[in-house]
Design goal:
By secondary structure, the protein is α/β, with parallel strands linked by helices. The protein is built from 8 helices and 9 strands.
Amino acid sequence: MKTLGLILGTALLAACSFWGSAGRQGVSSSLVDYLYPQGEIPPGPEGQVPNLKLPLTVGLAFVPAQSAGGQVLTETQRIKLLNDVKAAFAGRDYIREITVIPDAYMRSGRGFGALEQTARLYGLDVMALVSYDQVTHTAERTSSLLYWTIVGAYLVKGNKNDVSTFVDTAVFDVPTRKLLFRAPGLNEFKSSSTLVDLERDVRMAQQQGFERAMADMTVNLDNELATFKERIRTDGSVKVTRASPDGGSGTTDPALLAMLTVALLLAARRRRQGPRGVS
């Protein structure tokens, strides 16, 4: 009994140490703080128009956490999540390559200057940055009173765990620093735990929260990309050019395409009418 009491006491102390008195944990990364670390004001809508040269080389990375201890996922887990997003967009004719950027490069500096250095290193046209905010809350149920028994600490799931995860992917044109579009992902994950397994179960819930939020974001990113393609055809906010097979550059500029279409229709009409007589 003495040994069992010691085990139970250790479990109680571990749970208190893990959660503190509030029973709440939070991890986050801020896109604004990363890109504008000195409190700079983002530029207005005026200025240079992005010119996307298809097919694009795209960088994909997590925005670093705001504090050194603000990581729930290991680097291996973060890279896996980014590779899942990469796989969802593989084979698109307007994408040459998607490169997952390791954490070390993202932590080496802050601001658009650092982002541009990373883009030059990898030869990127566009950067997709994933920021996040995850809040974990655990509370004891009435059944947690049984934690004071040895059996209860091991068998009774007296803790309920709620994990709210929000991720947001912002896609930037590197040369102009313009935000092209963004897509969010959300997940609410609920689980229950015994006292002994509390820390393990919470970690698993946090990881699954990220996985599901990233999956939701990937679906939304595909939808936002379709909306973006439709929008730039009409508002002229972004120019798009496509490399020709001989290495040159062809254009898909909407205004020029319209002019070419009208010219071709007029030429076809003249051929159908034939040469006019001379009076």
